[in-house]
Amino acid sequence: MIPQFSRDDLKGIFHYTGKLIILIGYLLLFPLFIAILYKEWNPALDFIFTSLFSLSIGYLIVSQFPESSDINWRQGMTIASLIWLIYMFLGAIPLYLSGHYKSYMDSCFEAMSALATTGLVLVNDLDHMAHSYNFWRHFMCFIGGQGIILLGLLIFFKGASAFKIYVGEAREEKILPNVVQTSKFIWIVSTCYLIVFTLILGFVNILHGFSPSRGFFHAICLFMAGWDTAGFAVQTQNIVYYHSGLVDLITALIVILGATSFALHYAVWTGKFKEIFENYEFKVFLISIISLTFLCFAGFLKSVKNIDFISGFRIVFYQIISGHTGVGYTNIDPYHFKTYWNDFSLIILTIAMGLGGCSCSTSGGIKILRIGLIFKEIKKEIKGYSYPFSTVIIEKYHHIKDISLSDVQIKTVAIISIMYLVTYLIGGIIGTFLGYPFIHSLFESTSACANVGLSVGITNPDMPGILKITYIIEMWIGRLEFISIFVFIKYLISLRSPE
What we know:
- By secondary structure, the chain is an all-alpha fold.
- The chain is built from 22 helices and two strands.
- Strands 1-2 form a two-stranded antiparallel ribbon.
- α2 packs antiparallel against α6, α5 packs parallel to α21 and α7 crosses α9.
- The longest helix is centred in the middle third of the chain and has 29 residues.
- The radius of gyration is 22 Å and the shape is globular.
- The chain starts with 8 loop residues before the first helix and ends with a helix.
């Protein structure tokens, strides 16, 4: 049980929040560099303004709350929840100033979609957006995928405070002895993959007729959105734009790596290659992808007659990979879902999106480890009824090390899973109330809350404002996995209550 909040909690919350606001002020220098590189002077001014605005607010807050003593759990979770909203509002400023959004709310939607690595978009005329604005959209995916807090750990946080804020961002595993070392490893891995796959995709784009400058710009953006399972693309047509089976294959590999636990990455990077074959979560992940692809493909072939087997499989497999990893990349147009996909195939794809990728990865959704543990618990219960009453049943699984399944673990898994399912359903009901078909509404709601980004066409600049707000909230709570959000809400309520 979380103790009652006090107003003294404000000191620690504001101090660390101010530091993280300073951080985004400096992060805005990256798109500023792109603006200068491409001689985009008006966008450069927008990024300078937003950077100075963020730095001014951040340094003002830190100057008023200079204390940096260790914080408690409720403060850590409140900071984690609050900073994502602040980054949304600040990150949306240059997007709104770009003129590619109907309203500031639309640019906030896009910023939250990027930070939460969702990939649903409300941008207008993306094909003519300045390079620096487009880079900022994808760079926010890169920031949000590894985690805002995770980046802050490298610079600002230390001691017990670091772990309390780290957990608030829906992370539990410490790959290395402390969270700062864990943060360093995750960013090193991400940067190494960024270099490798930017080079690979860049040269592939050049082979397809792109100029070197354009080819590598597309490559780095595709990687940032793919590795962090966000699904933003440089062009309106998304992956369809490239008309390349090779690009499909490379991006599919990137998103599978992004949806794989960083703990498994660490095991492989340190020479423990057997972990790939022994890791329970990764095995369940692959089984789920294969099973759902088979079911979805069967439904797809039933509704789409005039398509060859290879083309049909390429479409279905890519959407399942995209949905299951939470990336939201697509090699078909949104109208294709509404026109050619029957309800059965859409439901299977919705299930894939809802399940999500691996724990401690850039992916969203319930997480496949939780699904695997539910099956382990079912197996344990069956054994319990099969053996004598006095028999003690112990169910184990291998996830980096051998772990015994506990009742506390199952309780947590059940709570988080149910909250995801309820949120998916609430968003679907709201969409249905606003006049959209239930299956389509559930699909879009799941895509938002599971931070996927696939769309049947509901998400567009003209959709009702209440639905935009609904999806922003779903993306936010889905990324942070509920608990820290509830703590944050409790804190806001407690501030209005007398001590």
